[in-house]
Amino acid sequence: MAITDPSWRHPDPTRSRIRLDVVPSDVIHGLARGEASAESVSPYLAGPEFRGLWRIRSAQIAARPADAPWVTRFIITPEVSAPIGVAGFHGGPDESGMVEVGYSVDPGWRRRGCARSALEILIAEARSHPSVRTIRATIAPDNLASIELVTAYGFTENGEQWDEEDGREIIYEIAAA
């Protein structure tokens, strides 16, 4: 099943007005090159902390265009004109039906429920695709806020891995069904 919706909305719009919008390919490629985009992203999203992510996603969608609607999206809230973070999957479902979530909220917008709303949108979107069987989150062991967030939604620890970008990560998973 292909993703055709450029904007994912919260499953309960009375609880959250946050949405996740596709980042156009040309914007991803520009951010990967370190160029400011016409999308007026925040310095946080255009900064050096995200350069590696944009490079990975740029190469990924160049090699596998079908991943473009799945990967990193802008977190949009009606209160401001620029994106306040990113959220999405690391790609479409793999051969076992697993998708991995990822999210990051601008420090000025943290502790306001934005990551929670983004995760709720990602879980709902994953569950709407029959080919998705498992939803995964990989989190650094010292990122207690993210660990508390995913475990509140039923994710359970399922091992660990070493990530070349982020180092040691604990793997958390839930069934999509």
How many β-strands, per DSSP?
Answer: 8
Main-sheet strand order equals 1-2-3-4-5-6-8-7
Radius of gyration: 15 Å
CATH architecture: 3-Layer(aba) Sandwich
Task: Kindly state the percentage of residues in helix.
Answer: 25-40%
Number of helices: 5
Main sheet record:
8 strands, mixed
- The domain tally reads 1
The CATH class turns out to be Alpha Beta
Which features does this protein show?
alpha+beta, Aminopeptidase, eight-stranded mixed beta sheet
What does this structure look like?
By secondary structure, this protein is of the alpha+beta class. It has one domain (14-175): Aminopeptidase (3-Layer(aba) Sandwich), CATH 3.40.630. It is 29% helix and 27% strand. It has 5 helices and 8 strands, in the order E-E-H-H-H-E-E-E-H-E-H-E-E. It has helices spanning 25-32, 43-46, 48-63, 114-127, 144-152, and strands at 7-9, 19-22, 73-76, 85-89, 98-105, 134-139, 156-163, 167-175. The chain has an 8-stranded mixed β-sheet, with helices on one face. Strand 5 (98-105), helix 4 (114-127) and strand 6 (134-139) form a beta-alpha-beta unit. The longest helix is centred in the N-terminal third of the chain and has 16 residues, at 48-63. It is globular and about 40 Å long. The mean pLDDT is 90.
